[in-house]
Write a structure and sequence with these properties.
6-stranded antiparallel beta sheet; 4-stranded antiparallel beta sheet; 10 strands
């Protein structure tokens, strides 16, 4: 069954609108990472943007490699046995969103592909931009000037 809108993922639906973040102040960012043995954390797997009103927008990748943008709260971390752990917590300073905490979102741009739906969101802040995209099933965050 085809989506009624080319911007809608056929598996996950339209989700939340990234432009709804425009004018909101980023108060907190929570993320999840996968830990395996002594390796550095992999990820982030998920990112939750929390505004000054405690509204939470979750960014992650879908099973069909779309970029899921939805309203949902962070989940608790969990143990995957021999496959490692997934930890959830406040964002560390190495992730592009860290430098924008306390800033308002000035603009939001979404990119779509006909077969997948939304594949990227770029959020603009006074001090720069952050691009969030699903690339080969992984969530990629990139700092833009």
């Amino acid at each position: 069954m085809e989506s009624e809108r080319p911007s809608q993922c056929s598996l996950h639906g339209a989700g939340a609108s990234a432009p709804s973040l425009v004018g909101k102040r980023l108060a907190k960012v929570v993320a999840s990472w996968r830990l395996y043995g002594t390796d550095d954390p992999a990820g982030p797997l998920d990112v939750w943007l929390i505004d000054e009103s405690d509204r939470t927008i979750h960014l992650t990748t879908g099973s069909d490699w779309c970029l899921v943008v939805e309203t949902s709260e962070p989940y608790a971390g969990y143990d995957m046995g021999d496959s490692g752990l997934v930890i959830v917590g406040a964002l560390d300073g190495t992730t592009p969103f860290a430098e924008h905490i306390g800033e308002c979102v000035l603009a939001a741009r979404e990119d779509f592909e006909p077969e997948t739906g939304r594949v990227a969101v770029e959020l603009s802040f006074p001090s720069g931009r952050v691009r969030c995209e699903s690339r080969a099933g992984d969530l990629r965050l990139t700092r833009r000037c």
